[in-house]
Amino acid sequence: MIRIEKNKLLFHYLVIFFLSYSPSVFSLSQSDLEDDEILVVEGDNVSQKLNQASEGQTLVFDVGNYEINLLIDKTVHLKGLSTADVILQGIGLNPVIEVSNGVAISIQNMTFIESNIGVSVGSSNVTIQNNIFLLGDEGIAVQADSESNLTVVNNVFNDIRTAVEVLEEAKSHIVKNNIFSDLPDNGEWFQNLIDDVSYNCFDQVVPGYSETKNNKVISDLGFSDLDNNDFHLTNDSACKDTGLDDFGDSVDMGAYGAAEADQYTFPVANIVFNKESDGIINVGWKKNEDHRLDGYLVYYGPNPIRQITSASERAELVPKLIPSADTLTFQVDDLLTTVEQPNAPVLSSVVPVSSGKLTVNWQKAINANSYTIYYQADGGSIASESVGDIASHTLTGLVNEASYSVWITATNKYKYYFQVVGFIDDEDDDNRRTEGLFIREDSTYLEEDKDLESNDSLIKIAIPEAVEPYPALPNEGCFIATAAFGYYSHNQVQILRDFRDNYLLTNEIGVKFVTWYYEYGPHAAIFISEHEFLKPIVRAGLFPLILLAQAIAIDVTAFLGLLIAYLFIWIAGLKMILKYRFKGLNAC
């Protein structure tokens, strides 16, 4: 059996009918597991993992969302790390899990959502325990044929049409220690089930079942937070300690009862802050109603807590211990009162990516946790966009063919990140503690009047470009160079454009060359843009021209004749190549 006491990073996301949780990073590694266990993480091909598993092994699912239709035809068990955070959903109309004939397996610690059938069982022995079924009001949690042997213990069935459907009447099934709640109007908890249905909790009378064999009818089942699908039991729940395990001991009913239940508490919600004085704040949170809870741990620091992905990293943080489940506030008195000014960031590049867009890339600065991008079109006003702790951002809504100056600054915000988790101490081992799960988004405490901004980075110039088919290139520009270098405002293309405007168009010979180029250049550009292998060849041919253009800006008299001669030779050569080497293209 696996007992992992590590941090799991999660984020909340809304799905139809209910709220569930999903991971932001993988929490386990194969080394955390036993030799007979195989790790499954979000994004894996689960069917392939199943095929690789040997008889008797267990697939252990890390926290995550899995869309699967899994056919199990050998004795391989399925187990989730955390019941609330391993989410299984079927694809199409097929069952999420289908168990074929002749195998004996267990399925535990998972949540099944939005599917027609959760588990379909052939003539096999299947134990289904410590799961939550939230399939919707047309869903069937467990469907089995008459030759199957089901053991359905310690599950929660909520708002589904049928919990257990047997295709023909049989007496080989055990249904015990479950909680059945919110049966829809068209629903019936059991179909053809005449077996041992005992020690279960129902929220309404179920004729033939609820009044016999130590079953209970309780209008308020005592879930910790039903609105957010937290099915842990509160201290006042009548379903607490009223189930019966195989050894005759009392256990909780529902998904978090008995020995195989996971020990993770639900994430702590609604963290709030109140400033006491400079560097001292009071932290408060909503009570976690899980009756097993022994207290809370408050994690905080100037860096995101949610990014902690390993036990060693978590060990470097020393949380504040609150040894009571009823204490819901804590005073943090060791926060820094000032921040250091960050270095100016290094602006790496500003690249046009599509119509009206520029992507800005930079190197992160020391002591910075956010950045501001400033940009200004020629003759326009300065605009800015504040972004988070990232190193790339795309500006949108810009004017095509306008020249933009872009620069950035770094900011060190006075910000502290907080996570509050509950913990459960092992009753049999004083040194064993299971901490709750981190949620994806830290709660943050800010004091903006203490933020410090860096000096400006260097400025880069870039031009957003419209995406148009050749030969309709913008600004009647350097067609071939644009095709070869990839975009209109590339530095090398800019050099050629400047040379055209400042030198070629100022004399008769240059004007004749530009006119000739405008006639043939677009056709050549089409061909180059459609044949990637030509681009490096053309770029190599353009580099001498670019060097000449740069040199002529220094000494016009010495290089003008040579440059124009080179232009005619280069274009004529390319023209001949296109005409005679690539048949079928009318490049001229």
Keyword list:
588 residues; eight-stranded parallel sheet; alpha/beta; disordered N terminus; Pectate Lyase C-like; Immunoglobulin-like; 4 domains; 35% strand
Describe the overall structure.
This protein is of the alpha/beta class and about 600 residues long. The chain has 4 domains: about 10-250, Pectate Lyase C-like, CATH 2.160.20; about 270-335 and about 415-450, Immunoglobulin-like (Sandwich); about 345-415 and about 450-460, Immunoglobulin-like (Sandwich), CATH 2.60.40; about 470-580, no CATH class. Helix content is about 15%, strand content about 35%. The protein has 7 helices and 45 strands. It has an 8-stranded parallel beta sheet, covered by helices on one side. Helix 4 crosses helix 6. The longest helix has 25 residues, at about 555-580. It is elongated. It starts with 8 loop residues before the first strand and ends in an 8-residue tail after the last helix. The model is unreliable at about 1-25, about 465-475 and about 580-588 (pLDDT under 50).
